[in-house]
From TrEMBL:
CC annotations in GO: mitochondrion
InterPro entries: MmgE/PrpD_sf, MmgE/PrpD_sf_1, MmgE_PrpD, MmgE_PrpD_N
Family, similarity comment: Belongs to the PrpD family.
GO molecular function: aconitate decarboxylase activity
Residue ranges of every copy of the MmgE/PrpD N-terminal domain listed in the record: 9-152
Protein name: IRG1 decarboxylase
GO biological process: defense response
Amino acid sequence: FFPQTITGNFANVIHGLNANHLTDQVIQRSKRMILDTLGVGLLGTSTEVCHKVAQYSKIYSSHISSTIWGHLDFRLPPLYAAFVNGVAVHSMDFDDTWHPATHPSGAVLPAVTALSEAFRQKKKISGLDLLLAFNVGIEVQGRLLRFSSEARNIPKRY
């Protein structure tokens, strides 16, 4: 697979994850995180900042598109759909949190849902595929945070 470096080891772990690694507890917690993030994101679509990024993003188009949450008739290229939906989640600042401070689901779920819609044209994505992708995204985010030498000093990081 990948060379035996920190990055290579990280890539091997992520590449090796599959649906068999999802325990019942992980699946239940993931569903709760997803439901919470969707709720916060739907509420966030009414914020001024979300309206601004949605208006800005309308200038982009593609033959592949994904839904803006809460607006079934408003579709954008997957990158911009993930951006708008992510802003909606973060604009409320009620999404889940880890310590040190990070909001894992608000960054991961908008990307996963936008991509799952985009891939639907080529390959049907199952609910288990979506849960696996969500958990891989959470794992990547958590590991990157742990790799940061400054993760314990959040003000210094920014």
